[in-house]
Amino acid sequence: MGITSNDAAPRAVLLRFLFLLCIGCKCLASEVEATQTATLAVDASPQLARKIPDTLFGIFFEINHAGAGGIWAELVSNRGFEAGGLHTPSNIDPWSIIGDDSSVFVETDRTSCFSRNIVALRMEVLCDNCPTGGVGVYNPGFWGMNIEEGKVYNLVMFVKSPETTDLTVSLTSSNGLQNLASATVTVSGESNWIKVEQKLVAKGTNRTSRLQITTNKKGVVWFDQVSLMPEDTYKGHGFRTELISMILDLKPRFLRFPGGCFVEGGWLRNAFRWRESIGPWEERPGHFGDVWHYWTDDGLGYYEFLQLAEDLGTEPIWVFNNGVSHNDEVDTVAIAPFVKDVLDSIEFARGSANSTWGSVRAAMGHPEPFPVKYVAIGNEDCGKKFYRGNYLKFYNAIRQAYPDIQMISNCDGSSTPLDHPADLYDFHVYNDSKTLFNMKSTFDRTSRSGPKAFVSEYAVWRGDAGRGSLLASLAEAAFLTGLEKNSDIVSMASYAPLFVNDNDQTLVHAAFHSLHCFLLCSCRPNIVVRGEAT
Ligand SMILES: *[C@@H]1O[C@H](CO)[C@@H](O)[C@H](O)[C@H]1NC(C)=O
Ligand SMILES: *[C@@H]1O[C@H](CO)[C@@H](O)[C@H](O)[C@H]1NC(C)=O
Ligand SMILES: *[C@@H]1O[C@H](CO)[C@@H](O)[C@H](O)[C@H]1NC(C)=O
């Protein structure tokens, strides 16, 4: 953790805050009644001092296309044509066709060179004299690609063309009329798949652009794993620089990933699988997240999350599936392979470069281990039938192999002690502003011994939150003061969700700004001030 706060700054910030508060009250008061005054009594005595843990405020990552179509810079959606499922013909959405039935026939088949994502796109050009501009396919990305003048975009695609063909790859406006970048790639006739790499430099800007691949040549061409990434990503690691800079401003002390319910899945077969999200991106199968209802190509996978935590200078918190989803569960008697799978995931992060899984990490470009010190055993699964049984299997195996790793239980220990061992426990709250405001005293009553609280998801939601409101922000801020006040037993807290893509507001109550304010004041006072307005 690179950030140390000096002692003078907190007080200065605090005083400025109180000053602004007074000004604010006066303005407000003068409108209501000129003579009304407010007194704020501040007890800053040393015996009330409480050391705020270094880890207190962090971020939780999930949902609303926060990854795919969000912080991950990949511009192509459904790059491997797998989103429509394994049964062909399949839906190629959001890909679409340039040309009509008489000029081009496009379908999926199962001829990819990648065994874990076997679906490929087959395009048969029927026209001898094709329309001007040719026929082909286009991908509009996630609600349009933001192509910016002067920027460089790296196109990578896998192509199979038995006959020599010229392919035109271009970036155009959504109606195809404005050409922002274009290049012609000659694919020499081959019965094998070849990898095509092409740089495109944008000569204009359009926020709702698309990627087109067209040709005038009659014949058959197959495509698979079509990727378009801006050349400029944060540290070259694939993340959007402007969004990363917003996160850096928050100075998060930890990154809880990859979810949330994303970890569980509606059904286990749709849960996040770390092993299918590592290795070369073109070999990743991708998966349908059935809780938030969208496909992800898993370009942002387990490795990239660990890399993100490192790039942010923050503690990674790996939330893994413990054999429980929203609708089905693995019986504890059959949980052993899942335990082994999770031990492998920790070896992938922490093992030396010559360990089985550490060597896979090293091959991906990171020989040094990622220092994972926290793992969460599931998400919101405390009440499930096999949770405790499975939990103990994971807990004991990890404790034995990695004695230093802090483990997080899904069971709330804020009012009654846990009936199982844990270092921390999750505490989640989504409610109206009044309830959250009153919950500022929740942890006042919590036992001072036992595992610490990780308030890993909190927010005012629904009517009070709307698309962000002052009321919600104030209630959340009040709740946070309660966490700071009790930071001897509350170790960590993160708002949910971190990002909302305007086009996917499955879970919206974003009060990014209240959090932003709170985290920016990472020169947080080391003294908790109790105030009382009279
Ligand atoms: C982007 O393209 C759309 C048509 O798809 C057009 O209406 C719009 O004016 C273009 N924007 C710019 C900035 O050129
Ligand atoms: C793995 O590498 C470490 C140093 O990085 C070394 O100490 C250890 O002996 C190696 N183990 C094997 C099995 O090669
Ligand atoms: C707040 O929490 C209570 C108790 O869990 C619940 O009954 C109520 O529906 C919640 N309100 C909102 C707006 O979520």
TrEMBL record:
<keyword id="KW-0272">Extracellular matrix</keyword>
<protein>
    <recommendedName>
        <fullName>non-reducing end alpha-L-arabinofuranosidase</fullName>
        <ecNumber>3.2.1.55</ecNumber>
    </recommendedName>
</protein>
<dbReference type="InterPro" id="IPR055235">
    <property type="entry name" value="ASD1_cat"/>
</dbReference>
<dbReference type="Pfam" id="PF06964">
    <property type="entry name" value="Alpha-L-AF_C"/>
</dbReference>
<keyword id="KW-0964">Secreted</keyword>
<keyword id="KW-0732">Signal</keyword>
<dbReference type="InterPro" id="IPR017853">
    <property type="entry name" value="GH"/>
</dbReference>
<dbReference type="Pfam" id="PF22848">
    <property type="entry name" value="ASD1_dom"/>
</dbReference>
<dbReference type="InterPro" id="IPR008979">
    <property type="entry name" value="Galactose-bd-like_sf"/>
</dbReference>
<dbReference type="InterPro" id="IPR010720">
    <property type="entry name" value="Alpha-L-AF_C"/>
</dbReference>
<keyword id="KW-0325">Glycoprotein</keyword>
<dbReference type="InterPro" id="IPR051563">
    <property type="entry name" value="Glycosyl_Hydrolase_51"/>
</dbReference>
<feature type="signal peptide">
    <location>
        <begin position="1"/>
        <end position="29"/>
    </location>
</feature>
<comment type="similarity">
    <text>Belongs to the glycosyl hydrolase 51 family.</text>
</comment>
<feature type="domain" description="Alpha-L-arabinofuranosidase C-terminal">
    <location>
        <begin position="457"/>
        <end position="501"/>
    </location>
</feature>
<dbReference type="GO" id="GO:0046373">
    <property type="term" value="P:L-arabinose metabolic process"/>
</dbReference>
<keyword id="KW-0378">Hydrolase</keyword>
<feature type="domain" description="Alpha-L-arabinofuranosidase 1 catalytic">
    <location>
        <begin position="247"/>
        <end position="448"/>
    </location>
</feature>
<dbReference type="GO" id="GO:0046556">
    <property type="term" value="F:alpha-L-arabinofuranosidase activity"/>
</dbReference>
